[in-house]
Amino acid sequence: MKITVIHGQGHKGITYKMTKTVLDFLAEDDDEINEFFLPKDGPGFCVGCNTCFMKGEEFCPGADKVQPIIKSMEESEIIILDSPNYVMEMSGNMKNLMDHFAYRWITHRPHANMFKKVGLTISSSAGAPPSNTVKSMAKQLKWMGVPKVYKFPLISNALNISTISSKKEVELKRKAEKIASKVKRRAQNPHASLKGKIMFYMFRKMQSSPDAAWNPKDRDWWIEQGWIENVRPWK
Ligand SMILES: Cc1cc2nc3c(=O)[nH]c(=O)nc-3n(C[C@H](O)[C@H](O)[C@H](O)COP(=O)(O)O)c2cc1C
């Protein structure tokens, strides 16, 4: 099994520990884990040139950094996004990377492999519940076609790993084990969701109509995949 992990921060703090603990319970010795740390492994800020949409993702000024990450995601069974809660959201580094994935949204040129994957989003915060942050990152994966995204939020009651209490560490480990078993079970039985299929059919309708499909690059993609005919990404 292949697992892609994108860390929305460069340091190995509480959020990293949450992810690492999940992986300890989740991954087998022969699993391949590809980790990307932001901002080191990510692209510069999206400049809003629209080139990915209109001309092709390979022409994005950040393509050399974006493409290895997205390729790894597309080849993986499990995708994990983590980020500390920064002002009730994912880190700016993570959001910037998500901006670069816009062309892969179901509305544009989704990759067929995404429709059967399992996602997991992880976040810690000092005091306020980081539920918005895990939901926000999950939304990104869902719009790329991922049918099931589990969420692991944790209130750390700490500003960094050196001040986390041992009681909190016990809670972290217990929750990590539980979430890892859910992710593993789903990964062993990958399947598309009804909601994902409905979204696919909604945008298939749009791409099927020459009037509604405003971007020829996207429309050609849907035609090439055979999705306007009888091919379906989850089969
Ligand atoms: C820029 C910044 C913004 C933060 N915003 C919040 C916040 O809005 N609510 C909160 O409870 N914690 C906030 N925190 C605290 C962290 O989310 C929290 O300490 C987290 O557990 C740190 O995880 P880490 O060790 O992985 O960096 C913020 C921290 C930073 C550095």
TrEMBL record:
Ranges for domain NADPH-dependent FMN reductase-like: 1-151
A Pfam family the protein falls into: FMN_red
Entry superkingdom: Bacteria
PANTHER family: FMN-DEPENDENT NADH-AZOREDUCTASE 1 (PTHR43741), FMN-DEPENDENT NADH:QUINONE OXIDOREDUCTASE (PTHR43741:SF4)
Name of protein: Flavodoxin family protein
Originating organism: Intestinibacter bartlettii
